[in-house]
């Protein structure tokens, strides 16, 4: 065991992870920049020695615990989990889009799960409590402007919708973060002799069919269970996370159709933009593509 530990890598990786934890605690503004590079130490350590990664992870979590910040502790745990996933997928030579799918899916579920847990033990406010200041402003606007009942109802509905869609915002933010972070980190990882893939064209992106089955099960559970129950909350989180992945699958189909029909690049870009705006329809297209293999049907035609 000890022969598999790389002392130099362990020390440097541990110091880097400790610095990440301290920056996130003491200089959160700088942390906005550091966060895009934060997975690097963990990725390199797991790629070279899993034992070294374990030691560095243990020490860094201990330091995060000493800070007394629940946010820093949670951040470090999710960071280390993301680093492990990315590095393991690099070891098995997974495609870049698969790495993006998997790390976004897992970290989104863990993040939402942690949020539910912290809310249940009163360590984190619920969504409606977070938007309470905005609701107060809206109510004040309604009172001052003397709006009619219909306008007031629309504004109040927008506030409720914001609370409902907060998990979706979190999932989208995490996915966009990893999309940008992978673009930044992979060239750096190559300097450390870590083999990294490149993004394939969007029309070649393809989710596994198991996503279709999991999404269908989550939908079924959400229908047969009562709202606000644990099972319903878990199924809703799965629906949100998988739904976003299905949007990407739908965009992949749109790009594939444009390629097959040999549309000009400008038209392809326009259709993809429309697909992003009309994401509920794009999500349905992605679901149908997974279930019925629309790409294959289109190619045969």
From TrEMBL:
Family annotation (InterPro entries): DUF2232
Xref: Pfam families: DUF2232
Transmembrane region(s): 12-39, 51-68, 74-92, 99-118, 169-189, 210-226, 238-258, 265-288
Keyword Nucleotide-binding among UniProt keywords: no
Protein keywords: Membrane, Transmembrane, Transmembrane helix
Top-level lineage group: Bacteria
Protein name: DUF2232 domain-containing protein
Species this protein is from: Staphylococcus agnetis
């Amino acid at each position: 065991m000890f022969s598999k530990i790389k002392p130099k890598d362990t020390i440097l990786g541990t110091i880097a992870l400790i610095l990440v934890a301290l920056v996130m605690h003491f200089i959160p503004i700088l942390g906005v920049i550091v966060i895009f590079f934060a997975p690097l130490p963990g990725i390199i350590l797991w790629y070279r020695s899993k034992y070294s990664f374990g030691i560095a992870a243990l020490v860094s979590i201990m330091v995060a615990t000493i800070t007394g910040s629940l946010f820093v502790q949670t951040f470090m745990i999710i960071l280390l989990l993301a680093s492990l996933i990315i590095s393991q997928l690099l070891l098995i030579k997974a495609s870049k889009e698969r790495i993006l799918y998997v790390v976004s899916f897992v970290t989104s579920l863990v993040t939402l799960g942690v949020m539910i847990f912290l809310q249940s033990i009163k360590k984190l406010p619920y969504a409606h409590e977070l938007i309470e200041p905005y609701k107060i402003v809206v109510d004040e606007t309604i009172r001052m402007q003397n709006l009619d009942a219909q306008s007031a109802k629309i504004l109040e509905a927008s506030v409720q919708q914001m609370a409902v869609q907060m998990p979706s915002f979190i999932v989208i933010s995490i996915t966009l973060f990893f999309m940008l972070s992978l673009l930044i980190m992979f060239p750096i990882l190559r300097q450390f002799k870590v083999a990294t893939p490149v993004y394939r064209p969007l029309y070649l992106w393809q989710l596994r069919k198991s996503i279709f089955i999991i999404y269908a099960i989550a939908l079924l559970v959400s229908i047969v269970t009562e709202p606000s129950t644990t099972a319903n909350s878990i199924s809703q989180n799965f629906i949100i996370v998988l739904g976003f992945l299905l949007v990407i699958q739908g965009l992949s189909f749109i790009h594939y159709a444009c390629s097959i029909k040999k549309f000009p690049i400008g038209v392809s870009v326009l259709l993809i933009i429309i697909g992003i705006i009309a994401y509920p329809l794009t999500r349905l297209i992605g679901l149908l593509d997974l279930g019925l293999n629309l790409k294959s049907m289109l190619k045969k035609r």
